[in-house]
Amino acid sequence: MRLGDENRASLETIQNTVFNSSSGHTATLGSLASVEQLPPQNEIRRENLQRLVVVTGRLEGSDLGSAMARVRQTVEGLHLPASVRVEYGGTYEEQQKSFHRPSAGAAAGAGAGLWRAAGRVPQLSRAHRHS
């Protein structure tokens, strides 16, 4: 999101920018987030020849699943151009990888099932006894 020029005149005006929620509540940006001025960006970060902008956040009073659902809904509501790619990383990315990776226990269980099946097939049963 980019604020209008009148809201970016100073750090104080940025902090005092008022946001309205869908439930009718209002809050200033300064009450919702820590706003600090950083030195100018001297380098443009790129990954795979594409400009990279990293946005981070901390969870407070929410679980990862609920927070990610709200983040995804908010990002979808931004109607970003097709040239912008959004990737979710950090703890969420690691969690998703672990859900899609077969666990060592599942692999061991599958292996035990194969050995049990081998006892019922004569050729494999003999090979197993000789090894």
Task: Explain what you see.
The structure is a single chain. With 131 residues, this protein is mainly alpha-helical. The protein folds into 3 domains: 1-35, no CATH class; 43-100, no CATH class; 103-131. It is built from 6 helices and 4 strands. Strands 1-2 form a two-stranded antiparallel ribbon. The radius of gyration is 26 Å and the shape is globular. Mean pLDDT is 75; it is low at 108-131.
Features:
131 residues, mainly alpha, two-stranded antiparallel ribbon, two-stranded antiparallel sheet, globular, disordered C terminus
Helical content stands at: 40-55%
Topology, number of strands: 4
Spans of at least 5 consecutive residues whose pLDDT stays below 50 are: 108-131
Order of helices and strands: HEEHEEHHHH
Strand order of the largest sheet: 1-2
Main pleated-sheet profile: 2 strands, antiparallel
End-to-end gap: 66 Å
- Domains, number: 3
Tally of alpha and pi helices: 6
Task: Please identify the structural class as seen in this structure.
Answer: mainly alpha
Strand content: 5-15%
What is the alpha-carbon Rg in Å? Answer: 26 Å
Fold blueprint:
Layout: H1 11-15, E1 18-20, E2 26-28, H2 29-32, E3 46-47, E4 50-51, H3 64-77, H4 90-100, H5 104-118, H6 122-130
Antiparallel strand pairs: 1-2, 3-4
